[in-house]
Amino acid sequence: MAFRRKEEGETVLLSAVEHRRLQLSKTTRAEKKAHFGQFLTSERTAAFMAGLFPDGGGDCRLLDAGAGIGSLSAAFLDRWRNGGLHFQRVEIDAFELDHNLIEYLSATLTKFDGKGDFFVNIREEDFIHCAVESLTGDLFSSPLKHFTHAILNPPYKKINSNSAHRLALRRAGIETVNLYSAFVALAVGLSAQGGQIVAIIPRSFCNGPYYRPFRDFILERTAIRHMHLFESRSKAFKDDNVLQENIIIRLERGAQQGPVTVSTSADDSFSDLTAHQHPFDRIVFLDDPERFIHVPMSSQQSTFEQSLAIRYTLADIGIRISTGPVVDFRLKAHLRDTPGPGAVPLLYPGHFSSSGTIWPIEGMKKSNAIERNAETEKWLYPNGYYCVVRRFSSKEEKRRIVASVVEPGIFGEAPVLGFENHLNLFHDNKHGLPEPLARGLAVFLNMTAVDEQFRRFSGHTQVNATDLRLMRYPSRDALIQLGEWAASQGTLSQDQIDARLGTLNA
Length: 506
Known about the structure:
This protein is α/β, with parallel strands linked by helices. It is built from 16 helices and 20 strands.
């Protein structure tokens, strides 16, 4: 298997770099880290990433974009100097835009020199502009040679739609919304045939419409060889207090796709490392137009993969899903704390709990009602049964998908309802659903297996309408039967809900 743990006491140099990293993490202001999107890689993570590269010979040209103090390059070079990689010569292009880190970066890398087989180019310049100029054949720039290897912990920062970076990336045929995905795409573009790219990046690229062009870009140009997932969202960059679900991925440029190794560990100690190989059709489903990238947590097929019953789209069962249309800050003048003449119920996630719909809530920080008038009418839905799912879960909450049923009876004679933007709303062409269907849908979505399936491709706390739309569901009849059962039971426990999964496969 093409990865290894770093052995205790393997090198003194990496430990010195780690000591420097910890000092910088403590003394660097949060504002500066956010400005550069800069979170330095720990020694153990760097060694693990370097261990993912297959052995090779000949000349190595390594790209380290966003090099920081050189932790990743040092781990790669350490493995080479200790005989784990058999290159005759290594040349590194290390890009770092933060002038304050250049001295540390230079000190880290020059310590590997001395045998005449190592060369380093420290480039204090913007990697995106330099890479784009090289890829597009800019007449006034020196093209970069194709890299055989790339090791990356790229910056985590959004790219504005009209920024210089966004416009430059489009010149290179790259459409993406974050610096981390831009760096990976450019590394792919700059890699030679068979080039190996290892990167630690947020898992958010695995799903969602904004990263679809990026997924297309890497899936068309590379083969995914390895993915490593940290089960804890807070441990990969714990010294910088980063709460982000991160993944380490190894890509091979221009290679034929085959099985993918998926490994997991609770944190960056890798003490409980497990790994399994999966056929690629478990990673990217053949019939998925969005090309979501799944990360299976078990060698066994999930209930969804085994089931022939959970195979219907929302369109198949006559249900639509939308994001709640009421954006409260845009309609602030029409919001009311309590219902009254001319106002109708306004529902937030806080109005829903495991015991059902609670409305109104006295003393709630959010509004309970919205005026019904010419400016708000188009945002309102007829009173009826709906299924709603919160768009955001709390940062360390166990469940991502939390579904509830809107029960029209508690709103009295209210003819219409408002649904705030932090809710996803299942409906029938902007009208309510039959009660058994709404209840059955909520029970299904609250099953543990559904939440686990969702987590295979979603690495953030947001649950988008697009993600729910692309999931598969039981048939309409099966959902109605599930809803009729739920209505006869009263309050349901999680064990009762999960036990009904088997009835859907009958």
